[in-house]
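Changelog entry: the Cytidylate kinase record was regenerated in this release. Current contents:
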Amino acid sequence: MQVAIDGPASAGKSTVAKIVAKNLNYIYIDTGAMYRACTLIARDGNVDYSDEKAILNLIDQSTIEFKNEGNEQKVYVNGKDASIAIRTPEITENVSQVSALKGVRQKMVNLQREMAGKNNVIMDGRDIGTTVLPDAQVKIFLIASVASRARRRFLDFKEKGIHQDIADIEHDIEVRDYKDSHRAISPLKKADDAIELDTTNLNIDQVVQEITALIEKNKKN
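Regenerated structure tokens:
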């Protein structure tokens, strides 16, 4: 079973995907974290975020892994826990540029498809239903207002000890939305057969229930 959850930044994709995957005993694949890890690799390697060849060389020399620790999925880059490092403002600001590089996308998409071919998976990102898993049995496109998404990110940052003004977060989200939806390769776009779900006025439990119901309905068909 392949479940694709797409949508803009901070629409709640990762949060609900993790919970649904855990409840159904599926593998959760956070594609956004993979591109953030690539951006971190570029930053730590002191290469320009537009230098595709240099970034690909660094990725080839690096490892990106997901590890479940307790009730949390951690992202490891070159053996080090990078779960917080990939969420900092600098990475957030530059991940769209790195993820738009053709070679980087190709490398990550191949890895994502390989993971999905071996397990029941829930995968979230920007182009899962349109590009990565076009034949996914369940496709969901989450949306939410910019204000509600900024509030969620602000609270998430606060919990992680990252301090950023909410107005700056709102601006960052608007810029990210524009970049993601206007990039030449695999832009943020709702698949024709995806079900749109507005999470602006829904809490996490309600979104989880909606998505779980859609998966269960598909299992019966």
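Strands lie at 2-6, 27-30, 64-69, 72-77, 80-81, 121-125, 138-143, 195-198.
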